[in-house]
Design goal:
single chain, 202 residues, mainly alpha, TorD-like, 11 helices, 65% helix, globular
Length: 202
């Protein structure tokens, strides 16, 4: 975890938060390969709802082959013309792609020093990118570590209004098997994050 080590003021809880955001970002950006499936199968959780969701994901990953994960990912997010789900903030918040939520996100990305990867053609308000942005803010990948108040502001604007709904849709999607468990982890994790941010002053 070299990024976190570069910022020794990051505590263990925040490192774990960043790791989970980054993990969800990777799983939602592309179908998992054999190595990522093996890493997922090795995850363990505690007795909390989030821990139990992680245990469930690990069990499904143990019996999932890369080829079936790819077929599932394509059905969910790519499809013929479009996948079963459209994982974009603009779509969930307005019913259309490339709308004001994307423009608002781009303004905040510029203010935070985030830039889109050159070889990326997806709108930046997709769920994978937003998970990666939150993970990066926590460990200072875009410069300084973002204070909790800034994390809360970003989360409240760009993730809270729609991502829990998206993860619920992912759990219930027809094509979801492995990704139903990813959706369960995402939903439980955002519940924890939302409660933590809610308890912050202001």
């Amino acid at each position: 975890m070299t990024l976190a080590q570069a910022h020794p003021q990051i505590d263990e809880e925040d490192r774990l938060r960043a790791d989970l955001y980054n993990y969800l970002g990777v799983m939602l950006a592309r179908a998992p390969d054999e190595m990522l499936l093996a890493q997922t199968a090795g995850l363990s959780g505690d007795a909390s709802p989030l821990g139990q969701a992680i245990e469930g994901l690990a069990r499904v990953a143990k019996v999932t082959k890369p080829k079936s994960a790819l077929t599932e990912y394509n059905a969910l997010f790519i499809g013929l013309g479009r996948g079963e789900l459209l994982p974009y903030a603009s779509y969930y918040m307005t019913g259309f792609l490339n709308e004001k939520p994307l423009a608002n996100l781009r303004a905040d990305m510029a203010a935070l020093g985030m830039t889109r990867a050159e070889n990326t053609f997806e709108p930046e308000d997709n769920i994978a990118s937003l998970m990666e942005m939150m993970g990066g803010m926590i460990v200072g990948r875009f410069g300084n570590v973002a204070p909790l108040a800034r994390q809360k502001e970003f989360y409240s604007k760009h993730i809270r209004p729609w991502a829990t709904h998206f993860f619920a849709d992912l759990k219930g999607a027809k094509a979801s098997v492995l990704y139903a468990s990813v959706g369960a982890v995402g939903a439980e994790f955002l519940d924890v994050e939302q409660e933590a941010f809610r308890m912050m002053a202001g």
